Amino acid sequence: MANAGPSVYKACAACKHQRRKCNQNCALAKYFPAEKSDDYEKVYNLFGMQNMLKILKSVDEDERDTTIESLIMEARMRLEYPVHGHFSVARKLSFEIEKAEKELEIVRQKIHICKGADNRAGPSTREGRPDQP
User: Fold this and answer.
1) Beta-sheet strands, E only, within 3-132
2) C-alpha angle 42/43/48, rounded to 5°?
3) Where are the domains of the chain?
4) Strands (E), the chain
5) Which residues lie closer than 8 Å to 15 by C-beta, 6 or more apart?
6) In sequence order, what are the residues at sequence separation of 6 or more whose Cβ sits closer than 8 angstroms to the Cβ of residue 72?
7) Among candidates 63, 70, 75, which has minimal Cα distance to 38?
8) Which residues, at least 6 apart from 39, have a Cβ–Cβ distance to it below 8 Å?
9) Alpha-carbon span 18 to 74, nearest angstrom
């Protein structure tokens, strides 16, 4: 038989931080369970409690999980790169993409040159070899 006693509700990271009793109506309990206290501390230090709640209330219910993940990622990036945050990482990756695209263009030009040289040589250079694709 099930125990009919009061259920024990573990305080979320936000309520632990504020040293208050957490109830089932807590707005942040779903996003910051007790195990995620480090993430909560990072987000709290960057945004503050009121701003975090404003941000959550400003988005639709189905987008709140993604919003919290974004806040956590932004807080982590801000700790790792305090001056520019995630922008420095995005800029670095953008430069790497540009470099790779330039390299790809050079390779394509070389392939085009090689194909052009093969076509100019004519069919006489292919004599004795089986058809190649």
Assistant:
1) none
2) 115
3) 10-80, 86-118
4) none
5) 21, 22, 26, 28, 29
6) 39, 42, 43
7) 75
8) 13, 32, 72, 75
9) 22
3-state secondary structure of 7: coil
Separation of alpha carbons 31 and 128, rounded Å: 71
Nearest to 36 by CA among 74, 68, 67, 64: 68
For the CA atoms of 61, 65, 66, 72, the dihedral, rounded to the nearest 10 degrees, stands at: 130
Residue from 46, 8, 42, 40 nearest 27 by CA: 40
pLDDT digits (tens), the chain, 133 positions: 444 444 555 788 888 888 888 887 888 888 888 888 899 999 999 999 899 999 999 999 899 999 999 999 999 999 888 888 888 889 999 999 999 999 999 999 999 998 887 666 655 555 555 555 5
Residues in the chain: 133
